[in-house]
From TrEMBL:
Residues 20-101 form the GST N-terminal domain. S-crystallins are structural components of squids and octopi eye lens. Contains relatively little if any GST activity. It catalyses: RX + glutathione = an S-substituted glutathione + a halide anion + H(+). PROSITE patterns: GST_CTER, GST_NTER, PROKAR_LIPOPROTEIN. It comes from the Eukaryota. Residues 103-213 form the GST C-terminal domain. Keywords: Signal, Transferase. This is glutathione transferase. One of its GO terms (biological process) is glutathione metabolic process.
Length: 213
């Protein structure tokens, strides 16, 4: 089994990105799947957005790796590999679409920031937090990323071009909804990055057509 998966992965790496077909499997919500959808959108890459209904999940759950979502089906020729874990999926796609830095140091920093953004999502989404608790978490994280953007000096978190963590940071702003501007008052560079991402043609098109929830 392991050998089969490994060989499938090697075969996939041998194909160009344009020859691949992608299917993202996730619930019919934004949650932990939306920033992956942002990666596809920003890269102008087609994918099948397979939205699984909550009521169907108990039956389907045993058929997915680790019995969780999201997963990504990558089909190239007669070979298909299924990837699980949202950040592993993000790294795979970012490597393919040029969103994962130019060298090992940049990739390590991008990965570090992506892990922190994942922790931020895990500590806030779906949690019963008071406004004071939410404020503390958000301001602590926004300050870190604001300082990083100032230090990098070009509008991106790492290097000299867009990365998947830039997309991840912007996409998380979805969950602030109408309170986003309140938090942005003290973090103009985070605000500028969010605006840059949402002005990308692929992201604009995606936001227009995605479900409004």
């Amino acid at each position: 089994m392991i050998k089969t998966i490994f060989l499938s992965y090697i075969l996939i790496l041998g194909y160009s990105c344009s020859e691949a077909e992608y299917k993202l499997n996730y619930f019919d919500i934004r949650g932990r799947g939306e920033f992956i959808r942002f990666i596809f959108a920003a890269s102008n890459q087609n994918f099948e957005d397979n939205r699984i209904k909550i009521e169907d999940w108990p039956t389907l759950k045993p058929t997915f790796p680790f019995q969780q979502l999201p997963t990504l089906d990558v089909r190239q020729g007669s070979e298909t590999i299924v990837l699980a874990q949202s950040k592993a999926i993000a790294r795979f796609l970012a490597d393919r679409f040029g969103l994962n830095g130019e060298n090992e140091i940049e990739k390590a920093l991008i990965d570090m920031y992506g892990c922190q953004l994942g922790d931020l999502a895990d500590s806030t989404l779906g949690k019963n937090l008071t406004k004071e608790q939410l404020d503390e978490i958000l301001h602590r994280n926004f300050k870190f990323f604001e300082d990083r953007l100032i230090k990098n000096g070009n509008g991106f978190l790492v290097g000299s071009k867009l990365s998947w963590t830039d997309l991840f940071l912007s996409q998380l702003m979805d969950f602030l909804e109408k309170t986003k501007d309140e938090y942005f008052k003290n973090y103009p560079h985070v605000k500028a990055l969010d605006e840059y991402v949402r002005e990308l043609p692929g992201i604009q098109e995606w936001i227009k057509k995605r479900p409004n929830f």
